[in-house]
Amino acid sequence: MAENTPLVAVVMGSASDWETMKHACEMLDQFEVPYSKQVVSAHRTPELMADFAHSAREKGIHVIIAGAGGAAHLPGMVAAQTTLPVIGVPVRSHALSGWDSLLSIVQMPGGIPVATTAVGNSGATNAGLLAVSILSTTDERLAKALQEYREGLKKKVEESNAQLV
Ligand code: RP5
Questions:
Q1: 155 CA distance to ligand 1 centroid (A)?
Q2: According to its UniProt record, what is one Pfam family this protein matches (predicted)?
Q3: Ligand 1 pocket, 14 CB below 6 A?
Q4: Is residue 153 part of a domain?
Q5: How many domains, the chain?
Q6: Longest dimension (CA), the chain
Q7: Residue 147, in any domain of the structure
Q8: Does 157 map to a domain?
Q9: 17 labelled as ligand-binding?
């Protein structure tokens, strides 16, 4: 398979989710993981969602990151139609601040898992990192890069301590 074949697919229920989901993509960019990104709505384009989920594995995708807000069915419905790992990102909603998104995604019935992150930007960042972490089980470069990333976080804490004067 070509080196730049996407390994991760990032999907979101609406273009309005991009402000959140771009944080997942930024992580994938940082770790130089090839990915695709696309709006796929569980409610507005259910057939597209089914096609996407059914064909993801044969296209070479290893991990799916799905973000949605409100009645956030996308991650669960994608997970129902693929055996690839699905990471769900609850996007903060206007009406209920993302509680609706979180509960819609996290409360999957036994048998169809969705690895659910925190609501909002940090959840999207962690979704990107978790995808890298999954890929790192068979990719030494990514395992090393994740270790370096953690070292960087540690260094930032140490530096912040030095500023407490
Ligand atoms: C969901 O509805 C999307 O994931 C989005 O978070 C929310 C609102 O969508 P728009 O009305 O902004 O397109 O399906």
A1: 38
A2: AIRC
A3: yes
A4: no
A5: 1
A6: 59
A7: no
A8: no
A9: yes
